[in-house]
Amino acid sequence: MVSNRPRLIYLVGFMGAGKSSVGASLSKALNWPFIDLDTTIEAGQGLTIRQIFEQAGEPFFRSVERAALAEIIKAEPAVLALGGGTFAQPPNVELISARGGPTVWLECSPDELYRRCQGITNRPLFRDRASFDQLLQQRLAYYQLADYRISTEGHSADEVAEQILGLQLF
Ligand code: S3P
After folding, report:
1. Are strands 148-151 and 34-36 parallel, antiparallel or unpaired?
2. Tens of pLDDT along 45-71?
3. Cα 158 to ligand 1 centre (Å)
4. pTM of the predicted structure, to 2 decimals
5. Boundaries of every domain in the chain
6. Angstrom distance (rounded) from CA 108 to CA 61
7. How far apart are alpha carbons 44 and 33 in whole angstroms?
8. Which atom of ligand 1 lies closest to the CA of 19?
9. Per the CATH hierarchy, to which homologous superfamily does domain 8-166 belong?
10. What distance in angstroms lies between residue 121's CA and the mean position of ligand 1's atoms?
11. Which residues line ligand 1 (CB under 6 A)?
């Protein structure tokens, strides 16, 4: 039987969840191209994510993010790592569900997410612990819309990629 399911997988989750590192590992294992949405946006704008936020603000970033998402979902096969806020924007969720392909939420405790984000300066929405926790709380309902949920807590990127492969999605 020939499957017509898209050979496309989306990694969603908060900052520090491991989307980029797991995505790189999964793409290697599947031998599929890896596309990181933030990296695509930076290349397209010729600016870092922080510079885009500082120079043009978050609403502009979100519109550029949506346009970049609409482009990268055309790729196939591909492992796509979204930004932490991408899947928390309803129009993006619609774009993804219209395109098809499984969404995987990389879940992790707030303490561990916070620990992983410390010292990384290219995350304009990473400020103090209170706002970090608040943003995470606001996003959970969206992340829960993902088709699958995998914990990255205490696991290497390769281990998480193995678990995703174990879902036998393709
Ligand atoms: C954001 C997360 C970042 C990046 C931008 C906004 C967010 O991606 O897209 O700074 O809204 O949570 P990472 O999750 O890869 O850090």
Report:
1. unpaired
2. 999 999 999 999 999 999 999 999 999
3. 22
4. 0.96
5. 8-166
6. 25
7. 18
8. 15
9. P-loop containing nucleotide triphosphate hydrolases (3.40.50.300)
10. 12
11. 15, 19, 38, 49, 83-85, 123-125
